[in-house]
Amino acid sequence: MSKTYDTVVGVLSERFNIAPETVTPASTFDDLALDSLTLLELVDALTDSLGVEITDDELAEMSGLPDIVAKLQEKGLAV
Question: Are 39 and 29 in contact (CB under 8 A)?
Fold first, then answer.
């Protein structure tokens, strides 16, 4: 796994009490039981933690963890 993936899983675990072992690199938002409000909270938490913003329009095009990780890496996140 990438460091970006590990960071996102860490935020999911810490902020949303999602057990890291239940998250896979292919997890969808439905798999993680993340509704639209929780997704907005996740994006805010990632912005706070990582300093990289995902816009609402970008989020609307995403369906799961691979999309978030790819977008963060595309924006130059190097954690």
Answer: yes
3-state DSSP assignment of residue 64: strand
Q: Does residue 54 contact residue 71 with C-beta atoms inside 8 Å? A: yes
Spatial neighbors of 24 by CB under 8 A, at least 6 apart, are 31, 65
Domains defined along the chain, listed by start = 3-74 (1.10.1200.10)
The pTM (predicted TM-score) of the whole model is 0.86
Rounded mean pLDDT, 1-26: 93
Length of the chain, in residues: 79
Give residue for tokens 């409000």: 37
